[in-house]
Write a structure and sequence with these properties.
heterodimer, A: 283 residues, mainly alpha, MetI-like fold, 73% helix, globular, B: 447 residues, alpha/beta, D-Maltodextrin-Binding Protein, domain 2, 2 domains, six-stranded mixed β-sheet, three-stranded antiparallel β-sheet, 13 strands
Chain lengths: 283, 447
């Protein structure tokens, strides 16, 4: 009986998750033009990607830059906002909602238009910078800055991560703060010696979550910078999409997907391994 | 016991998935069809066809009107429509074709016909369908959409890029339209005199909007400069020195302030670009066939009289040999159950007076003789589109190579041009890559 009850999920998982995963691995070993006949080429796609494909290298650099800067940025900002919103402030519920809203909006078209306008060369951001005597920045068209514009967008959408931190912070026992206070610990000291160690499991959880999502980023680069300028925001997911649906090469796109999976796997593993040294489990 | 149940579910599911995959891969015959051409036009049989296109709002209204006219004229036939903007449309159609769920009748781009099957026809061979009168096209026009000896699609018309001018801006400064690049740069000193590196109100002599436009502009400059088209039989015809000279010339236009630099360009890369719509550029470079969308967007469509189509700008003011191509075409799916009715619908679009009137010159001037006659008789060929075609027709024309617009081939040109414009490479490196990268992609196609 339990298996019959579970069957809808199991069947869905097998058809829509496991089967595509297996098939995509098989596809990655094919020369597979989208409207042509597939031909088995073994590991040729992988060899070409890793040894000859300059676009892949550019795409990888762009993705790693986005992930390795964006992930800590989101986690740090989300933690500190959650920390502040954990105090009993007047109107705190309003602020909690307000900060959560951007993450509901996600990477949709309206947000991309908003971002394009905000960060245009004559947009409000540059006007504000101008007040402080800072020269206008070509946020989306200068290869040096474009990826940071998208990182800022990602960081702005810290709401979900913040909410998880908030619930973790509320789980920290008040008695610990009272004890620390009696021992003469300042608020800052309490933050780093009590709060932070106790929420490190949640930091790890959020870091992994944000990292994996950052590797899968597509919308912002597709809508705001179109992968440019000069491929500096051409994230791997964009390259996979173009390879499959624009250039019509399923095999190559599948191989790219598996390489992306491998990279995500390795970085996640590193995070988990390193957690022995910095995550405190209260058990 | 538990393991056995899980194993059974697993086995059933994977079998089902494998069956689904096998179904999706079924081949549908050499010309596409199953051999049968389905219902005959006018038979009164219940037939439902799907028809897809991309385009602007104006085109959507016109095409829907044509579909309704056909339904009224053909009892039993229902035309379901699918349409949208160009962005992502090619990917959508490719995916549909992969899943064999594409519409019966498709508006297709010139490069799709050749690139989708990489030299093999992936659409129904229209030679096999008697309901479409192919004699209404000149053989040369049909040839452009012929693949591997099969008629993959029929062209609506031919088009080429033209220079559309904002005459009001030139009048304001008392300037004539430039005919050489030196005159363009001289005009920039006057029109762009108050420009600043980031000025929101900057004015320019001309603009190449988006990625496609600079690419086509440079390609035409190369043709003018060398007298040779981009490629012949899969080989790039230029030397690095020739390409470098043209890239330097192109870059000198933005360096002189005649065109915006890469950084100065507005992110809106279509007819809604505010520099164009507010009248702050002297000219744009757009397809003659779809010029209407730019004229409609200019100052809200209320100042079309301020616009003019003038001769091409060249290095010495001489008449160029211009690139042209079929603006778009219509193809029938290989998987259509009723290809004869689908062909009849295409024929209707081109030969029914009301249908032609409904379409107007939304798709440009048609190369189909019947459509063209109706367009002329009804006085539909007018305004800026007419002027644009007159300018095009005043030049020698070259149909662009089928693989000129292949996504991989032109994608390489886009990369090089953007790298040059953002300052990531100099013109020497860009010229070398412009040739070598394109050649690599062409070699794959001609392999």
């Amino acid at each position: 009986m339990p298996y019959i009850m579970l069957a809808p999920w199991i069947i869905g998982f097998l058809i829509f998750k496991l089967y595509p995963i297996i098939v995509s691995f098989y596809y990655s070993m094919l020369e597979y033009p989208i409207l042509g006949e597939p031909e088995f080429v073994g590991l040729q796609n992988y060899a070409e990607i890793l040894t000859k494909d300059q676009t892949f290298m550019k795409s990888l650099v762009a993705t790693l830059k986005y992930v390795l800067i964006g992930t800590p940025a989101v986690v740090i900002v989300a933690f500190f906002v959650a920390f502040i919103l954990n105090f009993k402030l007047k109107g705190v519920n309003f602020f909690r909602t307000a900060y959560y809203i951007p993450s509901i909006l996600g990477g949709n078209v309206a947000v991309s238009i908003l971002w394009t306008m905000l960060f245009s060369v004559n947009g409000p951001i540059n006007i504000v910078l101008g007040v402080f005597g800072i020269e206008p920045v070509y946020w989306t068209t200068d290869p040096r800055f474009a990826v940071f514009t998208l990182i800022i967008l990602k960081t702005w959408q810290f709401g979900s991560t913040m909410l998880i931190f908030l619930s973790a912070l509320q789980g920290v026992s008040k008695s610990l703060y009272e004890a620390a206070s009696l021992d003469g610990a300042t608020k800052i000291r309490q933050l780093f010696s009590v709060t932070l160690p106790l929420v490190t499991p949640v930091v790890l959880f959020n870091a992994v979550n944000v990292l994996v999502k950052a590797f899968q980023e597509f919308n912002s680069a597709y809508l705001i910078t179109k992968g440019g300028p000069n491929k500096t925001t051409y994230f791997l997911n964009l390259y996979i999409y173009d390879s499959a649906f624009k250039e019509g090469n399923y095999g190559y796109a599948s191989a790219l997907t598996w390489i992306l999976l491998l990279i995500i796997g390795i970085l996640t593993l590193i995070l988990f391994k390193s957690s022995d040294k910095w995550v405190y489990y209260n058990d | 016991m538990k393991k056995r149940v899980i194993a059974k579910i697993l086995a059933c599911t994977l079998t089902l998935a494998a069956v689904l995959t096998a179904c999706g891969k079924s081949d549908s015959g050499s010309n596409g069809g199953s051999g049968s051409t389905g219902a005959e036009p006018g038979s009164g049989e219940e037939v439902t066809l799907t028809f897809s296109w991309w385009g602007s709002e104006e085109r959507h209204e016109a095409m829907e009107q044509v579909a309704k006219l056909y339904e009224e004229a053909n009892e039993g036939v229902t035309i379901k429509v699918e349409y949208g903007a160009w962005d992502g449309w090619q990917q959508k159609v490719l995916t549909q074709m992969k899943g064999q769920t594409e519409p019966d009748i498709m508006q297709v781009n010139y490069n799709w016909v050749h690139s989708f099957g990489k030299g093999s026809n992936v659409f129904y061979d229209l030679n096999e369908l008697s309901s479409l009168d192919l004699s209404n096209w000149d053989a040369d026009y049909l040839k452009a959409m012929e693949v591997d000896g099969q008629q993959a699609a029929v062209p609506h018309g031919m088009t080429g890029r033209v220079q559309a001018y904002n005459a009001a801006l030139f009048e304001e400064y008392g300037l004539e339209f430039p005919t050489t690049y030196d005159e363009v740069k001289a005009a920039a000193e006057i029109i762009g005199a108050d420009n600043t590196p980031t000025g929101a109100d900057n004015k320019y002599v001309l603009m190449t909007i988006g990625k496609e436009c600079p690419d086509l502009y440079i390609a035409q400059m190369l043709y003018n400069h060398t007298g040779k088209p981009m490629q012949t039989d899969g080989k790039i015809n230029y030397t690095e020195a020739e390409v470098k000279e043209v890239l330097d010339l192109y870059m000198s236009l933005s360096e002189s302030g005649a065109m915006p630099t890469f950084q100065q360009e507005d992110p809106i890369d279509n007819e809604s670009n505010p520099v164009w719509t507010s009248g702050r550029t002297g000219a744009i470079y757009e397809w003659a066939g779809t010029l209407n969308k730019y004229t409609a967007a200019y100052k809200g469509g209320d100042a079309v009289d301020e616009l003019a189509i003038a001769p091409y700008i060249t290095e010495d003011g001489s008449a160029p040999n211009v690139y042209v191509k079929p603006n778009l075409g219509y193809a029938v799916s290989k998987n259509s159950k009723n290809p004869e009715v689908a062909a009849d619908f295409i024929n209707f679009m081109f030969t029914d007076e009301e249908a032609v009137k409904a379409l107007g010159t939304n798709l440009g001037i048609s190369s189909n003789k019947v459509t063209n006659e109706i367009q002329v008789k009804e006085g539909m060929i007018e305004g800026k589109v007419k002027e644009a075609y007159e300018v095009l027709d005043s030049y020698e024309q070259t149909v662009i190579d089928p693989y000129f617009e292949d996504e991989n081939v032109r994608g390489q040109r886009y990369i090089v041009i953007e790298a040059l414009r953002t300052g990531s490479v100099d013109s020497t490196e860009a010229a070398a890559e412009y040739i070598s990268k394109q050649q690599e992609e062409l070699d794959k196609l001609y392999d």
